[in-house]
């Protein structure tokens, strides 16, 4: 199946999601978030909010705690202290699959796909997060099971078209070019119908033209009704696509503001250029 009309793609890609938070209000509230390993704080008292409908960049030098923060938000790590409130409800010790059901999806620094499955099959797996068929329904091929299976294929194709790789639908994920694997991972994350999409270094390994295309895709994702949290090392991409940026260094937040303000912040410049603290104006 191939969907050619923009409105039809938009309808299939971004179905109605039950979001309690109004546009522009805080969708994700991170408060005093601390993650310790063996008594050492990888994340130390970090607080920030993500507003519904914005693209927030989370940046910092290597070892700043960006991925640790991602992992604490998405349930990979349990915070030592602090809280994460999502769409009005605390996440607490919620399990990872439950966090996905609540509406947080993510990609990874290293692409994680089912290599022997086709691109379409990979995306259809993502739609399972919203399916309601029971085990028995699947075993006995209930009417609901068939309907959900058909809808998964339709929506999977719409998502592949949305990210620009519909022509790869029948190819094994392992055979796709690296850039298309990255796009496939984003499509699979979108298939879970997230309220918040977390992208962990999506431009890693990309050439300049691929990065420019990725910037357009991220903006299109936001324009389609999603909220985006982005970790990325490429400052041109971050400055060109985000509405706001949070900067970490050694596990602590050192800046939070609009791209222009962050770019000119002396503490941020020092963190990236290695200027001693006593030389910061």
Describe the structure.
Helices cover about 40% and strands about 20% of the residues. The strands form two sheets. Strands 6-7-8-3-9-10 form a six-stranded mixed sheet, sandwiched between helices. A four-stranded antiparallel sheet has the order 2-1-4-5, with helices on one face. The protein is of the alpha/beta class and about 280 residues long. The protein contains eleven helices and ten strands. It is globular and about 55 Å long. Strand 1 and strand 2 (about 40-50) form a beta hairpin. It has a single domain, classed as 3-Layer(aba) Sandwich (Rossmann fold). The protein has helices at about 5-15, 65-75, 95-100, 120-125, 135-140, 145-165, 180-190, 210-225, 235-240, 260-265, 265-275; strands at about 25-35, 40-50, 55-60, 80-85, 90, 105, 195-200, 225-230, 245-250, 250-255. The model is unreliable at about 1-5 and about 130-140 (pLDDT under 50). It starts with 5 loop residues before the first helix and ends in an 8-residue tail after the last helix. It comes from Gordonia spumicola. One of its GO terms (cellular component) is plasma membrane. GO terms for molecular function: ATP binding; ATP hydrolysis activity; L-isoleucine transmembrane transporter activity; L-phenylalanine transmembrane transporter activity; L-valine transmembrane transporter activity. Keywords: ATP-binding, Nucleotide-binding, Transport. This is ABC transporter ATP-binding protein.
């Amino acid at each position: 199946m191939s969907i050619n009309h923009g409105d039809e793609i938009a309808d299939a890609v971004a179905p109605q999601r039950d979001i309690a938070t109004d546009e522009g209000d805080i969708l994700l509230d991170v408060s005093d978030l601390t993650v310790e390993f063996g008594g050492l704080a990888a994340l130390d008292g970090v607080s920030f909010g993500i507003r519904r409908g914005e693209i927030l960049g989370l940046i910092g030098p290597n070892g700043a705690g960006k991925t640790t923060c991602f992992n604490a938000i998405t349930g990979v790590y349990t915070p030592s202290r602090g809280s994460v409130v999502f769409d009005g409800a605390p996440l607490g010790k919620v399990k990872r699959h439950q966090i996905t059901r609540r509406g947080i999806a993510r990609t990874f620094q290293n692409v994680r796909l089912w290599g022997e499955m086709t691109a379409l099959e990979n995306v259809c797996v993502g739609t399972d997060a919203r399916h309601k068929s029971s085990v028995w329904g699947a075993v006995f091929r209930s009417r609901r099971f068939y309907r959900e299976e058909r809808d998964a294929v339709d929506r999977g194709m719409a998502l592949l078209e949305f990210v620009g790789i519909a022509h790869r639908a029948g190819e094994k994920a392992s055979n796709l070019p690296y850039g298309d694997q990255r796009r496939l991972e984003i499509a699979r994350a979108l298939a879970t119908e997230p309220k918040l999409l977390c992208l962990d270094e999506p431009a890693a390994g990309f050439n300049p033209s691929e990065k420019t295309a990725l910037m357009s895709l991220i903006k299109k994702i936001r324009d389609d009704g999603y909220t985006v949290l982005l970790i990325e090392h490429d400052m041109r991409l971050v400055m060109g696509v985000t509405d706001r940026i949070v900067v970490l260094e050694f596990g602590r937040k050192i800046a939070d503001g609009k791209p222009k303000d962050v770019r000119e912040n002396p503490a941020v410049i020092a963190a990236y250029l290695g200027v001693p603290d006593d030389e910061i104006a």
